[in-house]
Fold ABC-type cobalt transport system, permease component CbiQ related transporter.
Amino acid sequence: MNEHQILGYIPKQTVIHSFNATAKLFFVLAVSFACMTTYDTRFLLVVGICSTFIFKLADLKWNQISFVIKFVCFFSVLNILAVFVFQPTYGQELYGAKQVLISAGYFTLTSQELFYLANVALKYFCTIPLTLGFILTTNPSAFAASLSKLKVSYKVSYAVSLALRYIPDIQADYFAISQAQQARGFEMSKKGKFFNRMKGALQIVLPLVFSSLERIETISTAMELRRFGAKKKRTWYVAEPFRTRDYLLVVSGLVLFIISLILFKINGGRFYNPFK
């Protein structure tokens, strides 16, 4: 495992790794749709706890995922703050009540707005561990085979597989160029100033783009020589049959999705309102 790898398949012998890629993809999609369509706090809390547990079962080390987690958390917090800044009264309009926590004019914070923002945060808490766990525990070729089983064009499936394989290579090139820059005396480690590091990162982009274009040309030529796309269908070497555990995973995803639909009827809409 490359110590600088930020996002890519991490081969291990865990329960999560052993699931069929198609079953895992179906589960992630079903649960993600369920979480995106409901604002029932009870449901989101249960799914969030389950997602964290599943992510823990994948046995991923913090140094392997820390950058991605920090990056996602930063933009999630930024999005939540933007939601509040642009419409701080949305919560009270949504839940039909107003309990002021902090009075600050336009930016007055109410219990209803805080509750709504907490639900938005819970959505991230439900879906991000599942999505990351799927990407980091699924072989790109198996992922492509799973897409093909879901009736996605094999050309699209193969393109996704190449993209997932290519991400770690781009990361490796970035860090190689970064180390070369540091060897020339340009400080880009954590010891350097933030703006100097940003400037150095931007300077790396150009050589990284050229090396990427060269690699794309090589891959494209190799695929043409192998007559890729000449047939309407293709087989997948890494395709695996479904086992009992895979069927159970698919059923679990369906059950969670059906529960979200039932809650939609019980709550009279997408939102669970404890302020009635």
